[in-house]
Specification:
This protein is an alpha/beta fold. It has a single domain, classed as Rossmann fold, CATH 3.40.50.1360. The chain contains six helices and ten strands. Strands 1-2-10-9-6-3-4 form a seven-stranded mixed beta sheet, sandwiched between helices. Strands 5-8-7 form a three-stranded antiparallel beta sheet. Helix 1 crosses helix 2. The chain starts with a strand and ends in a 16-residue tail after the last strand. Bound molecules: 6-phosphogluconic acid. 6-phosphogluconic acid binds next to loops.
Length: 262
């Protein structure tokens, strides 16, 4: 594993998906300890999809060392996005996290803030979640929530959270949460918007697999084309941005050597 500084973000290349989850778990614990020490709670917006599944399982595992290091009663779980399905649906990001992590560790139910995507009106589900965020983070008008950690994945089409190519939500600057029609999936998604995603103290992308290599190169080293590659829209204003990628996904990157060889 080596740390390479690419343009405006850190890239950490690890050998494989297993090491990706291990490093992500270490980051999770580190950020949780830091946040709880500083503010008494740790707020995280979780990624959905398949890449983070093994991370969530690892965090809950009683054979790994992470579980007992996390002050679970002080962690508040949110979601970066959700499919427009009920919470018990196989496609639900909430269900995926509930099965692998939340049902396995002592998180108080009131610390789990899921997107109520069972609402037949996805716009109302988005509005409801926006109110959850405003209330939890005690936000005045024009203020954005600041998560301690945002976990993101990246699709091979360059989407992240539910910011899909050529959708209006990529340019949303007013709302915290939005519903977005995803043509190619013939469904709505509910997602945090770029201003919220870019306001986090720490943002970590988890990208694994050779099928993402060409897109990862375009996102990190190609021309800025956020409508085509929405993952490019993630440029935290103040927080840190780490791309945790495995070697298969990183194979087309023109990686610079680590600046200080140390
Ligand atoms: O709801 C989702 O699916 C995620 O939020 C989405 O943005 C995901 O992170 C990417 O699609 C990558 O998915 P994989 O990890 O399955 O490749």
């Amino acid at each position: 594993m080596h740390l390479i500084r690419a343009v405006k973000s850190d890239i950490r290349v690890v050998a494989n998906a297993e090491e990706l989850s291990l490093k992500a778990a270490e980051e999770f614990v580190h950020r949780a300890e830091e946040a709880v020490q500083a503010r008494g709670i740790f707020t995280i917006a979780l990624a959905g999809g398949s890449t983070p599944k093994s991370l969530y399982t690892l965090l809950a595992s009683d054979t790994a060392s992470f579980r007992e290091q996390v002050p679970w009663n002080k962690v508040h779980f949110f979601w970066g996005d959700e499919r427009h399905v009920p919470p018990d649906h196989p496609e639900s990001n909430y269900r995926m996290v509930q099965e692998r992590l939340l049902s396995q560790v002592p998180v108080p139910p009131e610390n789990v803030h899921r997107i109520l995507a069972e609402n037949p009106d996805p716009g109302k589900a988005a509005d409801e979640y926006e109110q959850v965020l405003r209330h939890f983070f005690k936000l005045h008008e024009g203020k954005w929530p600041r998560f301690d950690l945002v976990l993101l994945g990246m699709g091979s089409d360059g989407h992240t959270a539910s910011l899909f190519p050529v959708t209006n939500v990529i340019h949303e600057q007013r709302h915290l949460v939005a519903a977005s029609w995803v043509e190619k999936q013939n469904t709505y998604r509910v997602t945090l918007t770029p201003p919220v995603l870019n306001n986090a103290l720490c943002t970590i992308f988890l990208v694994s697999g050779s099928e993402k290599a060409e897109t990862l190169r375009a996102v990190l080293e190609g021309n800025p084309e956020p409508d085509r590659f929405p993952a490019q829209i993630i440029r935290p204003k103040q927080g840190s941005l780490l791309w945790l990628v495995d070697r298969a996904a990183a194979r087309f990157l023109r990686l610079e050597q680590e600046e200080n060889h140390g």
